[in-house]
């Protein structure tokens, strides 16, 4: 096997590079006879999902050295959606995905690495890493940090990081005492790890596994389980095997693998952000596949077999014990293409046949195809005069009664305006909250309307109102919502023409979202749109706002 690192390390003219490595303690044996495996580590003490990654890195290194490789490590940025939510910092979260991807590309190419282990967790980090893997196309394995454990029981289920915001809405509505807020704050996040619900963080961890880029059964092992350490060690061994076999990400992340992943996400009602991230990964892999259309078409033939928080009381630890991704893929039967290669060097079918389940079946969490929770998928794509290109919704996370909803528009040009109105009691039953100019360009950065949905829930409005936006949502949100509306308001999309008092119709079963005015009136309004002034600060956000694609294209920098 000819390692690509040797073009930078072998020969009399490469003494400088070897000397620089030796200054850090590497030996001739480390540099000349072994593959150089990079560990892209997004560890920090800012993000609970990444708090344990240094420990995992130690076990990855043990595996690499056990298998005859040389481990080198570098840092990757990571920002916490939860800590950034509800303020200007959230504008940086989605754009950080591109920085993560670009920084890994730079390190891998500048140092001619032979393979990569990417240590990450949470919403934008794993997608950015998968994008980098597809772009670089050198052997890669994703190792995620694992979900946190659920907290004290609150509102009928184990609490999690979002419970405090739900509780704030309840407090404003007079349902709980102020002292209850502090108790919940102290007991809802009892360990490190990605948030305990099926939000974007755990959805993308599952996505990495079902794409074949993580070891089978690894996505949902909690951060505090010793099994998580063994997965890291085994991944270190496997990456050296992948380098020897020259098995690369584009051999794994094929169109068929993407379709498998879409089906799994539909079947478990994963985060709507998966549509954005799979679009971005497909773009980096040069795959000619329209992800929005895949979700729309596969929704009709993919049953919902798994339900966990926010669609049910069960958390990620429960989902893991019920069998996680292996059980779900097995229960999807012939809907899953079992012939796709994975980072184990084996096919998905071989991995599933060999997988040993530790815990008993729990059919309250994962159903069979014969007895599904629903016959169609948990994410759907809507079109209409508000969303000509598309809008994304998550019917698997809200009551069937909300699948047809007609309400009165309450229009806001920013997340903050909407949040203030909700907490001030200015939103009523039957309203459709419209939050616009929060798309990739208009935000800029496409913030999540997470707090707005949580406040509506806490104030008892989640079953009698709807929310639509050219921004996006957290995977933990439930209630009737439609996000990713494209084109966005900042690009002249029709959502910019909505006025207070307009009627808006949402019909999930028919795949429609419409503003109930005539075509002529809509055309007249579109001619007279006045964009709100936004002072985009100098720096990365200004660059992103100019270069980002629309949400239906993955909000990538083209």
Characteristics of this structure?
single chain; 558 residues; alpha/beta; Rossmann fold; Glucose Oxidase, domain 1; 2 domains; eight-stranded mixed sheet; 22 helices; globular
Topology diagram in text:
Blueprint (H helix, E strand, L loop, with lengths): L5 H4 L5 H8 L5 H5 L3 E6 L11 H14 L3 E6 L5 H4 L8 H18 L4 E6 L4 H12 L3 E5 L8 E2 L2 E2 L4 H10 L5 H10 L12 H11 L15 H20 L3 H4 L2 H14 L4 H12 L6 H9 L16 H6 L2 H8 L16 H7 L25 E3 L7 E4 L10 E9 L2 H9 L7 E5 L14 H9 L7 E4 L10 E7 L16 E5 L4 E4 L3 H9 L12 H8 L11
Parallel strand pairs: 1-2, 1-3, 3-4, 9-10, 10-11, 11-12
Antiparallel strand pairs: 5-6, 7-8, 8-12, 9-13, 13-14
Task: Indicate the radius of gyration in whole angstroms.
Answer: 23 Å
Largest sheet: 8 strands, mixed
Distance between the termini: 35 Å
The side-by-side strand order for the widest beta sheet comes to: 7-8-12-11-10-9-13-14
CATH structural fold name of the largest domain:
Rossmann fold
Structure annotation, total helices: 22
The poorly predicted ranges are none
CATH class of the largest domain: Alpha Beta
Please state the overall shape, judged from the principal axes of the Cα atoms: globular
Indicate the structural class.
alpha/beta
CATH homologous superfamily identity of the largest domain: Response regulator
Number of DSSP E strands: 14
CATH architecture of the largest domain: 3-Layer(aba) Sandwich
Query: What is the average of the pLDDT values?
Result: 95
State which percent range the strand residues make up.
5-15%
- Work out the helicity level: 25-40%
Number of domains: 2
């Amino acid at each position: 096997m000819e390692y690509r690192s040797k073009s930078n390390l072998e020969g009399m003219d490469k003494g400088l590079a070897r000397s620089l490595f030796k200054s850090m303690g590497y030996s001739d044996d480390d540099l000349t006879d072994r593959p150089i495996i990079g560990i892209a580590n997004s560890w920090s003490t800012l993000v609970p999902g990444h708090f344990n990654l240094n420990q995992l890195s130690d076990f990855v290194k043990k595996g690499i050295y056990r298998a005859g490789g040389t481990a080198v490590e570098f840092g990757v940025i990571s920002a916490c959606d939860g800590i950034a939510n509800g303020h200007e910092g959230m504008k940086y979260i989605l754009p950080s995905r591109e920085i993560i991807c670009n920084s890994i590309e730079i390190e891998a190419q500048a140092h001619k690495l032979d393979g990569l282990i990417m240590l990450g967790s949470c919403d934008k980090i794993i997608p950015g890493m998968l994008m980098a893997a597809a772009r670089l196309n050198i052997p890669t394995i994703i190792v995620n940090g694992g979900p946190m454990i659920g907290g004290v029981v609150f509102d009928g289920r184990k609490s999690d990081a979002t419970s405090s915001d739900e509780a704030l809405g309840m407090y404003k509505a007079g349902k709980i005492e102020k002292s209850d807020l502090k108790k919940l704050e102290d007991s809802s996040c009892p360990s490190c790890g990605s948030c305990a619900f099926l939000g974007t963080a755990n959805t993308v961890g599952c996505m990495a596994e079902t794409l074949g880029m993580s070891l089978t059964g690894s996505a949902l092992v909690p951060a505090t389980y010793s099994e998580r350490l063994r997965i890291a060690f085994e991944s270190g061994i496997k990456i050296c095997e992948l380098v020897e076999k020259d098995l690369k990400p584009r051999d794994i992340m094929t169109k068929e693998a993407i379709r498998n992943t879409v089906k799994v996400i539909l079947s478990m009602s994963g985060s709507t952000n998966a549509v954005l991230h799979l679009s971005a990964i497909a773009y980096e892999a040069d795959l000619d596949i329209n992800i929005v259309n895949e979700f729309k078409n596969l929704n009709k033939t993919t049953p919902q077999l798994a339900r966990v928080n926010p669609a049910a009381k069960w958390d990620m630890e429960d989902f893991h014990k019920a069998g996680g991704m292996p059980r779900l893929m097995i229960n999807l039967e012939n809907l899953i293409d079992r012939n796709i290669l994975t980072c184990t060097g084996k096919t998905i079918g071989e991995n599933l046949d060999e997988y040993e389940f530790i815990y008993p079946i729990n059919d309250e969490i994962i159903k069979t195809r014969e007895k599904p929770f629903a016959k169609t998928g948990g994410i759907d794509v809507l079109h209409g005069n508000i969303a000509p290109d598309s809008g994304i919704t998550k019917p698997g996370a809200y009551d069937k009664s909300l699948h047809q909803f007609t309400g009165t528009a309450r229009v806001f040009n920013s997340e903050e305006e909407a949040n203030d109105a909700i907490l001030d009691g200015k939103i009523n039953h039957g309203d459709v909250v419209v939050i616009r100019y929060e798309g990739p360009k208009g935000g800029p950065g496409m913030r999540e309307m997470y707090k707005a949905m949580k406040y509506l829930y806490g104030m008892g409005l989640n079953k009698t109102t709807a929310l639509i936006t050219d921004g996006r949502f957290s995977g933990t949100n439930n209630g009737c919502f439609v996000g990713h509306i494209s084109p966005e308001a900042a690009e002249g999309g029709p959502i910019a023409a909505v006025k207070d008092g307009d009627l808006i119709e949402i019909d999930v079963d028919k795949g429609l979202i419409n503003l109930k005015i005539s075509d002529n009136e809509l055309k007249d309004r579109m001619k007279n749109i006045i964009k709100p002034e936004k002072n985009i600060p100098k720096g990365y956000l200004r660059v992103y706002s100019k270069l980002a694609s629309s949400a239906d294209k993955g909000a990538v920098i083209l």
